[in-house]
């Protein structure tokens, strides 16, 4: 037992150490983008005013992630680092969870180590462990939900059910996607010991414990009902996923297109070699077939549901679904060690399978502007208007100008990157006024004219790529990475002639 614990701790420490190196290096090189600005600003507001701790519900988002960012903001001075560090922590929880989940399923420590290594080098995990978004924690909770669900069906104990209730409930407080873990609990019966003489009694206990876990998770989730904005969650979910009453009128209209798009994102981030290794786990060895089938189902079920019901999709939506595939691929890697007698050959073969993932991850870390990630994320994070290139320069310029005296800044937008990115860094500066405008009027607003007569007044545009017909001077243009057709622009309003 002591030797087992010693080996486990050593491997987990090594994985965690290398993990932090890969996640923290150049963590803030990629500028803040639209969704990050929203969540970090919510966290600032909620952290400063207890009445707004549920502020994310005003936009239909569960608050657990913003609560964690509120705590992180008290530790780290840079708001962007604070927000992204919360996701870094989620990745640690995921990599440890994958280790224990894989070891529990296959009863082999090496499978757990390979699962952790695959997560470590994965471009998919790397991208979202380094962004201030909900999805890294969605993946973390999904791993531990499956782990405790498997423990429950194998050992059938009340204490395990109580822990499962907490992981389910906390996951639901983070994002609606966590409900998949609750819906998939019956599938774990595939691992139930039906040959046991007392299987009927054990099955009854299992059912009772699952009901307890499900009910308690809903009690935890009901904390959100304390907010009058709880109802907005279902409205927001309906923007991304078709409600059944709408879906039934066109049940398979979008299935093919959604499936193709989701699968393109899947192999774009997981890479073909790792995906093939995951699927090959059924062929390389016939052992643990039902365990592999369970893992496959926990990937395929949510994936197919999103393809069927998805209305507005982003690559990050499938991150949590890919976690079982890491374990399936890890079991294939473990099987390779029995195929080749010389372990050096096994390692070379494994490195070849991992080469594409390592290459993409290296580019993400050190050359994000040209990293070969999926096209949808390139637009969102790097080369289109939601990305934040130019934000640091605008904030720095305004902070320097504010040292000379009062000024005003008007931004294109009232929700999103602007004005939130400006507010995150400058709202506490007494010399800076921040105003949002949307939509942009054809004629310059009178309050901007008045402001320009009293103090230096600036305008920053990000979405509209044409200059408004207003009396102002272009100060600088900040292209979105290497895309010079889309840029952030900073203007200074001309003082009206007296």
How would you characterize this protein structure?
The chain has 498 residues and is α/β, with parallel strands linked by helices. It folds into two domains: 2-374, no CATH class; 391-493. The chain is 61% helix and 7% strand. It has a five-stranded mixed sheet, with helices on both faces. Strand 4 and strand 5 (483-493) form a beta hairpin. Helix 1 (2-24) packs parallel to helix 5, helix 4 packs across helix 16 and helix 7 (135-155) packs antiparallel against helix 8 (158-174). It is globular and about 95 Å long. The termini are far apart. The mean pLDDT is 94.
Task: Summarize the structure in short.
By secondary structure, this protein is an alpha/beta fold. Helices cover 61% and strands 7% of the residues. It has 21 helices and 5 strands.
């Amino acid at each position: 037992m002591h030797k087992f614990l010693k080996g486990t701790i050593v491997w987990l420490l090594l994985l965690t150490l290398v993990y932090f190196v890969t996640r923290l290096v150049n963590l803030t090189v990629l500028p803040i983008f639209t969704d990050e600005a929203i969540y970090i600003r919510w966290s600032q507001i909620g952290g400063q005013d207890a009445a707004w701790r549920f502020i994310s519900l005003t936009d239909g988002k569960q608050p657990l992630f913003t609560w964690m960012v509120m705590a992180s903001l008290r530790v780290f001075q840079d708001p962007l680092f604070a927000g992204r560090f919360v996701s870094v922590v989620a990745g640690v929880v995921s990599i440890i969870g994958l280790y224990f989940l894989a070891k529990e399923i296959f009863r082999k420590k090496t499978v757990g180590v390979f699962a952790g290594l695959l997560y470590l080098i994965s471009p998919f995990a790397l991208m979202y462990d380094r962004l201030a978004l909900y999805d890294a924690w969605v993946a973390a909770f999904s791993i531990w939900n499956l782990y405790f669900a498997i423990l429950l069906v194998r050992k059938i104990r009340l204490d395990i059910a109580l822990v499962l209730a907490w992981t389910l409930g906390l996951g639901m407080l983070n994002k609606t996607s966590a409900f998949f873990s609750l819906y998939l609990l019956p599938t774990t019966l595939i691992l139930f010991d039906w040959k046991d003489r007392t299987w009927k009694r054990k099955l009854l206990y299992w059912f009772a414990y699952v009901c307890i876990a499900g009910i308690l998770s809903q009690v935890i989730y009901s904390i959100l009902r304390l907010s009058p904005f709880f109802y907005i969650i279902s409205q927001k979910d309906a923007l991304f996923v078709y409600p059944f009453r709408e879906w039934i009128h066109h049940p398979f209209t979008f299935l093919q297109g959604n499936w193709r798009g989701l699968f393109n994102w899947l192999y774009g981030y997981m890479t073909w070699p790792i995906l093939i290794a995951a699927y090959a786990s059924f062929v390389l060895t016939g052992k643990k077939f039902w365990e592999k089938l369970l893992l496959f189902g926990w990937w395929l079920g949510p994936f197919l549901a999103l393809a069927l019901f998805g209305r507005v999709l982003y690559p990050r939506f499938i991150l949590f679904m890919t976690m079982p595939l890491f374990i399936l691929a890890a079991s294939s890697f473990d099987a390779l060690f029995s195929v080749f007698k010389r372990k050096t050959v096994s390692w070379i073969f494994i490195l070849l399978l991992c080469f594409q993932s390592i290459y993409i991850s290296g580019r993400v870390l050190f050359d994000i502007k040209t990293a070969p990630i999926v096209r949808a994320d390139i637009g969102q994070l790097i080369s289109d208007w939601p990305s934040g290139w130019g934000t640091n320069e605008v904030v720095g310029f305004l902070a320097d100008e504010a040292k000379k005296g009062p000024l005003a800044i008007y931004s294109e937008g009232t929700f999103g990157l602007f004005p939130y990115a400006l507010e995150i860094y400058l709202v506490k500066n007494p010399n800076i006024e921040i105003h949002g405008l949307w939509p942009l009027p054809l004629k310059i607003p009178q309050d901007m004219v008045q402001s320009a007569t009293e103090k230096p007044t600036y305008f920053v545009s990000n979405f509209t790529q044409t200059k408004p017909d207003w009396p102002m001077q272009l100060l600088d243009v900040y292209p979105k990475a290497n895309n010079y057709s889309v840029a952030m622009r900073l203007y200074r309003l001309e003082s009206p002639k007296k």
